[in-house]
User: Fold these one by one.
Assistant:
Number 1:
Amino acid sequence: MFIIGLGTAAPPRRYTQRECWDALQKSAPFPRLAPRSRAILQKVLCGDNGIATRHLALEPLSEVFNLTPDVLHARFAKHAPALATKAAQLALKDAKCKAGDIDAVLISTCTGYLCPGLTSHVSERLGLRPDVFPLDLVGQGCGAALPNLRAAEAILTAGRAQKVLSVCVEVCSAAFYLDDDSGVLISACLFGDGAGAAVLANKPQPKRRHVEWKWGSSLLAPDKRDALRFDYKNGMLRNILLPQVPQIAGDEAVRLLNESLVAAGVKREGITGWILHTGGRDVLLALGQARLERIRHSPQHRRAARIWQSQQPDGFFCARTRPARCRAGRVVVDVGVRRGFQLPWCVVGSEINL
């Protein structure tokens, strides 16, 4: 499978963490929080936690504190189709493909629910063929981009499609919640809104640099499911994030990486780049402590994490630039941590095709 086009989209407004803290102090929910909770919010939003800014579908920022199920759903219904469509349009342009060339469209999300799903809305806006194969993927959380790509690989390998449009979109501002749970508070300080898309094909584009998907695998750990998941409270999504998540990710990721490299026939010294979706600085540090030294000292990832922090689509944001920086024939590894608890990996190669 070849990645022949990439596109990303984010809301136009980007807010600093300090701006978020200033707005939070003026909000109605803030006085109702315990003193310890306010201290946690101040530490995360005003400290150096690796995230400097977030794109949010809010104008003004104070909209985020209107916490009712109807308002949150309306925010998702308005912005998720628009962001997904924009990212898809840019991916099609990058691939030099027309909407009619797409045989299947796969869209992943976890921050809202539409029925018919996002594939219906996005297909209409893009003008995809009526016989396109639409597949909505939900409930896979932060790292859903990789299982989305694996599903696309299966469709292409089966010969049911020549070109597949893969899209991930999250409107985390539509899944905002505040209470005195520390995990809930930290989650409110981490994530932004955005979408990413890729055009995938079973053949590379002629006379263009291409990226080939070499291998993908994942590790499912149901016994750790309660460490990282969504819950419902008062009719709204509420993110559960336990303190042990970074350690779990670090321990399991190394084993899965080693198994994936063996299966892909790639030696570790051949890895020249990383695309990381870790969900924050602490998971990144845990991966470094778990002997992934090249991750630990990656300035590119530190910069990406400070700008793009939008759950599953952020892998697409990084992927737009990272493979291009690797020399031809080299290997890039992508890792994600997602609700479940599941860790997906993929191995891709970059080549010049003339």
Number 2:
Amino acid sequence: MGLRGPKAVEVNRLQNDATAWAAFFYTLRDGQSGYMQRVKWEKIRNTGSAKWTRFQAGIGGIVLPANTSYRTSKALGPAIHIPVSEAARMLPAKMNAKGWHVSRPVMPEPEIWSLLKQARSKREIRKLSSRIRQWMNKEFGVVGRWLPGDPPLEFADALELYGEQLIISKRLPSYARTNRPTSDDKRIVFCSKVLAGARFGLAPITAVKRLSHWNYPKDWAEKPLRELVELSNKQFAERGLMKNQYKEM
């Protein structure tokens, strides 16, 4: 009796990784809007010895490592949208204002994404991974830089680790090569499928086939943020707490 082949990978695990990659690539290319909101801060706490602790935060969630200080807050006013813009680029990386929660926009690095699409060697991928790490250090800190799973893996490390599969995948006929407006979104989805599969030992063509019905929209962050701002404004308007200083920026 011959050796058994590799264990089948659950599609939902592939989708989780592909979703994380797509969010990462869209953010790298387009950035993410931020928001600010008047709040009452709670006491500073610590995650303790737990390896990873997950929290609801803003329009999504965050995962913090062990022995990390954090604090929660209660909203006192509606959320204010801060779009990605040249003006936002001038904002400091860390913003502190008494009585306010400020989530600074994540500024994009579209040049890195363009070079990543052009990369034809592992050496080029390594250089771009280093630039991505620098970008993430500036824009993310310790939050938002990890692929899900156990053990978690940093995006920059994963890109360097699976760069060869990404290079090979560009030869497949399903890789978008036109300059149509939607083609670049298709390239992000395609690369996300390939890198998700690479983590589980799948060849690029196999990963693309396994995830043939999976997609991820480019407004994955903007849409829920708009909904957060709209819902927040509605809630505080009903309570009669809307004031001029809460106009959208």
Number 3:
Amino acid sequence: MALYNKDGSVYTLSGPNPAMKEQDIWGDFVLHNMKWNSEKYKDTMDLKPVKSDIKVKESFLQELEKTKPEKTKVVGKVIENSVEQNSTIEEKVSQVYETPQQAPQESIEETKIYERKVEVHQDKQRIEEETKPEFEKTFIHCLPATIRVKKDDLYGDVFKTVQYGSPTSFEGIVLVQEDLFVKIWTDAFQIDKGSILYPKANFKRWWKVNEVESKAKGWILTCMPSDYQPSFTD
């Protein structure tokens, strides 16, 4: 059964490439180590030592002995003759060493002592820097929140509502300040999640308490930017 194309013509297989008609067949060729056999070559290069101008010094002990300083200076020699029992004379040479002479003490004249009054001025700037607390406290406005949880008795669904109390304020320490979160430590009172904070600092933003962690007899409040911005003006 013949195969047909979409237009109804008989489908024919593609023939050989016309460019292959003029291709030459290689009859003579040489393969160079196609089996990856190992080959060894002998190095026939004659290595000649290079002449060096470096002079080898004497041994360390000899050099140390030459540079050893003399402790004393010989001034003269004293020869003593002694006669032994066998009538032989033996020369004994003893070296006389020079001893350092102490310089004569000069007479110390009595000097007059004058008293000078020195006025001491307190460095107020240094005192303020030394007495400055390690952490600066920040005044913070707060709108405390209370989260109430309600559960549907019929279906079991849980609903959470936030109820805000009266505005208050406290002092805290800003630990971390970033664009999207801030961490504040305080020991004034426990602040629940959902409370709105407004630190009275350079960054004028409202923050919502997201996490509360007990730390160092106080609490660390992790806050996120708040979409609710209440007014704390009197």
Number 4:
Amino acid sequence: MLKISSDGRKAALDMRLVQPGTPTGTTKIDAVADLVARTWERTRDNVYLDPTTGEESPVRGALQLVFCDLGVPGDKWNVYATLRDELYARGLPEGSVRFAHEARNDAEKGRLFAACRAGHVAVLIGSTGKMGVGTNVQARAVHLVDMDAPWRPADVEQRHGRIIRQGNQNPEVAITQVVTGHSFDAYMWQTLEYKSKFIAQVLSGKMTGVNEIEEIGSDTLSFAEVKALASGNPLLLERAKATQELAKYQRLKSAHLANQRSLTGTVSMSGRDLETTRQLIPVMDAAATTVVSTRAEAFAARIEGHLYTSRSDAAHALGRLLRPGLVRPSDNFGEIAHLGGHTITAHHDGATLYLEVPAAPLAIATVALHDLTGPLEPGFVIRLENLVRTIPEAANRLHVREHELVDRIAAAQKTLTVPFAHDEALAKAEARYDQVTRDIEAAAKQPAIATSPAGPIASPDPSPTSAAAAATQSTPTMPAPHPAPGVSPPPARPIWERVAGPAPPPVARQADTSASPPAPQP
């Protein structure tokens, strides 16, 4: 697969990268040269400010960036040198086309980039690695061309970040992605589409299904569009747009249903909490009314039938009561004291001592057993006092909790009655997607090749075939010759027009007297 991918990318760019000397007609190099030359002609007199002085620069003209990761400069035939020659043949001045690969160190790179910013370079050609991060040439950049597709969406973002960048003096810029119909370009852009969707899904933090990823990123449709264009079937572009539109409303529908399920759960759980709260309220209210203050001199605690008015004495008494049980694996002490108008019980599980007020279910405190290794201090008694003293506060919190639960249930029930706001739009998106899919299926059933006096004629919507299959189904034709030096080739047509070809001439047919229906026209 690595070999197939490598040769496929090269073939989509130029067959001469796969087999040097291969006869070829109009290639990406010609299309890019035409496009760049037209843009240069249109922007050659643009006025820009000098980046160092801030004054109007005497040098006119914009900068164009061309990214190409394959066919880099070398001793053999390469894309870079051929594109430069084609641009010179179309009128660009000698020396105005430079390669990022010319800069062999940081100093040379700095001088090259400075020349680009100053207007001395009209076209800078480079790879993602050579002209990606750190390329500060955006001051005059007006047009960027992707001649091939990298492997990662981040590489596309880095490429486009060279022109969509702060400091660019152009209010508007253009980005062109050049693809070859029915080539490996479709696979490359499809791979970028898949990766873009997955990465955007992960970064969003909203995974809606184990086996599904959703179109979220703003670049995803752009990749899908390029893939559809490269496939040679414009209907695929319509389906890409319809798919995104449908996915958007399906996500909204899924979010609405998930919210409805969440609200249903909220009503259920809050209802149970409300029932429990309402059961506790009278119990805690009754316990709160019997709380007696033990502050300062009002302290009094009854332990094992003895009344103590000193916290230190009460602590020693509790120590004598609890000490034997603390060394056992677990023990239930039952009532250990009566203070503040309430009885306090205790038990432990071998690690934690639990202090509770039976009359007030929410009055619970815990103490780690390793904190009770020495004699009990008055602070332990104060903890018991606080346990009883906070019973009225706990009762008041229950009333607040009751009101909150009532409001939450009411709000959830009201929202549950709201229908999905985009049902009509979802239905239209589904209908559009289904219609485009049917159109694609219908087009695929049309004959791929028709016979005419001039030879095979491709249908307007040919079905994709392998290279081997295409070779067996079509008659070899002579490739279009290269234009003579200094002569511009005819302007490139849209991909689907080049694939489909011109309308076929009328085909003479012998009269058919059978009852079978006439053959469909290609």
